[in-house]
Structure formats: C-alpha cells, structure tokens
Specification:
With 80 residues, the protein is an alpha+beta fold. It has a single domain, classed as 3-Layer(aba) Sandwich (GIY-YIG endonuclease), CATH 3.40.1440. Helices cover 39% and strands 29% of the residues.
C-alpha cells in the first residue's frame, strides 16, 4: 500500500506537513528523530490522518493535491 499522510507538530500548533510513504510507522519515526530537514525543527509530530492507495501514481497525485491551496483548505476544514 501507498499512503499520503498529514502530521501536525505537538509543540507548534500551526505547523503541519503532508507527505507520502509506504511505511507510516517508520516515516513518522523518521520525522520525530530528525531525519527530515523539512520537519526537524518542529518536532515532535503526531499523525493526524492518512489516505491509503494501491497505486503509487494516484498516491503521489493526491499528495500533490493536498499541497495545493484547495487541498490545504480541504485538510483545514476536515482534519485541522
């Protein structure tokens, strides 16, 4: 399975991050251990939601959508 996910900083309430992975537990652990330069300074993170797909291309397209203005509005309305 492929996952598009949303995480939110526990310390910085306005910081969130959307990403893509095939292993949610490992990816969240990576964010919280500082392996990602984009999320390192806002640790620790909690998983808010994820969307599972069987197709990698569809997952990447959905992740791109979540990073658009309308995708961010969707996340804010339903999950943040």
């Amino acid at each position: 399975m492929y996952y598009a996910y949303l995480i939110k900083s526990k310390k910085f309430k306005n910081q969130h991050y959307t990403g893509y992975t095939t292993n949610l537990k490992s990816r969240l652990k990576g964010h919280n251990s500082g392996k990602s330069p984009h999320t390192n300074k806002f640790r620790p993170w909690k998983l808010i939601c994820y969307f599972a797909f069987q197709n990698k291309e569809k997952t990447l397209n959905f992740e791109r959508y979540l990073k658009t203005e309308s995708g961010r509005a969707f996340l804010k309305k339903h999950f943040l």
